[in-house]
């Protein structure tokens, strides 16, 4: 092939010769290397999207299983127990707070018997 036809097809690359040509070839990037970094960034983004979609899908399946379980007798029973014990817990907190307040009222200085006997 002649040099002219090779140049038309894009097969001729002007390779620098000599010491400075070698230095230049090492320090400059290849013509397609910018394209490779863009492709790598796109691949990384698509892999992250794939991970996120997988996590969303797994979460949806878990939610579907919980909904199906809540429709069974055992699920309804545990749901009732959850409501019962949450009301019981609030009741205990209320009674404990009330008991502490009543104890403080008994120990105030104007109701204390030791202060009146002096």
Query: In angstroms, what separates the terminal alpha carbons?
Result: 124 Å
Overall mean pLDDT: 81
- Counted by DSSP, the helix tally is 5
What share of the residues lie within helices? Answer: over 70%
**Beta-strand proportion:** under 5%
Overall geometric form: elongated
Secondary structure: number of strands: 0
Rg from C-alpha positions?
40 Å
Uncertain segments? none
Q: Strand-and-helix sequence, N→C?
A: HHHHH
Main beta sheet: strand number and arrangement?
none
Structural class of the helices, strands and pairings?
mainly alpha
Give structural notes.
- The protein contains five helices and no strands.
- By secondary structure, it is an all-alpha fold.
- Among the domains are: 31 residues; 35 residues.
- The radius of gyration is 40 Å and the shape is elongated.
- The termini are far apart.
Short key terms for the protein model shown above:
elongated; about 120 residues; 5 helices; mainly alpha
Summarize the structure.
With 118 residues, this protein is an all-alpha fold. It is 79% helix and 0% strand. The protein has helices at 3-9, 18-27, 33-70, 73-106, 113-116.
Draw up the topology in text.
Elements: H1 3-9, H2 18-27, H3 33-70, H4 73-106, H5 113-116
